[in-house]
Amino acid sequence: MSNTFLTKPQHTPKAWRLSTRLLRGVTGIVAGCLLIVSLMVIGFTKFEIAERLDDSLQEVAERLQFAVLLLNQPGNVQAVAHLSHITPLSLAYQITDTQGHVLLRSANAPVEAFVTPIQAGFYGQKAFRVYVMPAAQPDRFILVGEPQFHRAQATHHAIFIAVLPILGAIPCIWVLVMWQVRRSMAPLVRLQDEIKERGSGNLNPVPNLNLPTELATIQTAVNLLLERVHKALAAERAFAANAAHELRNPIAALLAQAQTLHSTITAYPATDQTSAMAQRLTTMTEQIQRLGRITEKLLQLSRAVAGTGLQRNRFDMLSVLHVVADELDPPHNTTPQRLVLETGAFTSLTVMGDMDATGILLRNLLENALCHSPTGSAVHVNLYAETPQNQTCTTQQHTTLQHTAKTTPPFAPTPKTVFLTIENQSTALSPITLTALTDPFVRGCTQAEGSGLGLAIARTISNHMGVPMQLFSPIPGHKTGFMVRLSFPIVTEKT
User: What architecture is the 213-303 domain classified under in CATH?
Assistant: First the structure.
């Protein structure tokens, strides 16, 4: 019985931004504080408005003492005092006796007394806020009522005026905080950009960026790390270059001895023993030659990674391509042609860079394509300019590159970029393998001999030269094949 161990899936933590978190945090704290202040202002405003309105009720009640005197004058029989400018929001008053009988009232006051029994003080009714005060004349009370609607309206208006500036300040504070956060994060962004530029080809220390103390320590740590990495890479490259250089002479001597011994044995009469020894020497010679090629590739890789000796000169890339192609597939060869060059109407192609490095770049790419090309198939090298006629056409399954128009028509503008594609008919590679194919000693699913360094050297040289290199498998528009595409910027006479 086998035991099965179940592992919980690892969840990738959600990415977050420091600036966003700071912005939200500071704005949230400020908004929370302003909200608390707003609540305190609302409470204070309610209390203050209530106190002032109650004071106004007391003041009106004191001024109504004259109305009590009207009751004692002869001929006064009106129970309702008709005053001008009476509105639903106006104060209402009543004059009552101790029993609660309304002796005189305003037009907007109810018929019945505001409160019963009649006692001095403030009373909260459904429709009115009432103040009761004893009159100067005995057995008389003055009742002044304020509509609750008016009181609520006045309170809300005062709260609105008091709180609106506070709430309106929140968007302004958010904008100011966002500006300050971005301004404060600018040194971190500069440090980030400087670190992004660092790589195997650039291990220079980060220059002084006038960073704050918190980031200056990080810059110091990064520079120390870059220094250690630079020393480690330098030691590794020196070891690889020295080892490859020191191995060249012994390998050459060993190859010469093996070839001499093979010639000597083949000079003797053929026997079973001599034939077996000759076969072993042939295998030994092939392995020594393979070791020599690997050593040469290691030397090329170390020089390419170091970027030493690269120059920036004008040269004809098309001539270099023809020289490398003729060396790998001689035109006078009796075997079927393995390299098919389609350069269209291009007679020259002036680019800026290092001619020797470009030759190594093209040689490695062509050798890789030839090495992994099926027997009997050819490697196609296409050269075409980026013109309006070189558009992409879409089918139901694939997006294919239009290679039919590889010449620049007379009426078309001068192209700025020329594409060089190298294609073979190998088996399609998986996306994972294709991504890692430019790493040293990484090879696809093939039985062909190779060092696993050709594409790594090509990638390194193309990066140093600023020539984008793209890998495709299968070839766009096909189910199989492998394609490498280089983008060369054309150098005009005015450049």
Answer: Orthogonal Bundle (1.10)
